[in-house]
Amino acid sequence: MLLRTLSSVLLCVLLTGCETLLLGSTLVGCAARMEPLLLPEHLPDGQVGMPYRQRIEISKASTPVHGFYISDKTPLPAGLRIEHQDREAQALIAGIPSQAGLHQVHMSVGTYGTQCVGLRAERTYHLRIVE
Question: Which residues make Cβ contacts (< 8 Å) with residue 95, sequence separation at least 6?
Fold first, then answer.
C-alpha cells in the first residue's frame, strides 16, 4: 500500500514537471512569434466611375487569417468593398468608387490562435479617388 502511494505521488510530481516544462516552452514560443505585417504600405489612386481592384495581404502570419476588417469610423469610399475568404492571407478591395476625395481607411487583420493567442496587424491608408 505504501509503495503504491509513493508511486502515485512520484508519478504526479513527474507529470507536473512535464506540464510545467511544456507550458514554459509554449510561452517562449508564443513570445518569439513575429508580428504580422499588412501590405501594401500605400493604396494606389482610384477614379470615380472606373473599376478599382487592389490586393491586400498579411505577411509573417504564423496562423490562418480570420478576417480583414475596415473601421466603421474610417470606411472605404462609397462603391468599394473588401472581399475575403476565411483562412486566406489576402483580400481584395474592389468596386467602382462613386465619390471623389481623399479617404482615410483604417484596416485591421486578425489571425486565429492555436496554443497562443491570435495576432493583429493594422494600417491606416489614405486612398485618393479622383474625378
Answer: 51, 52, 76, 79, 80, 81
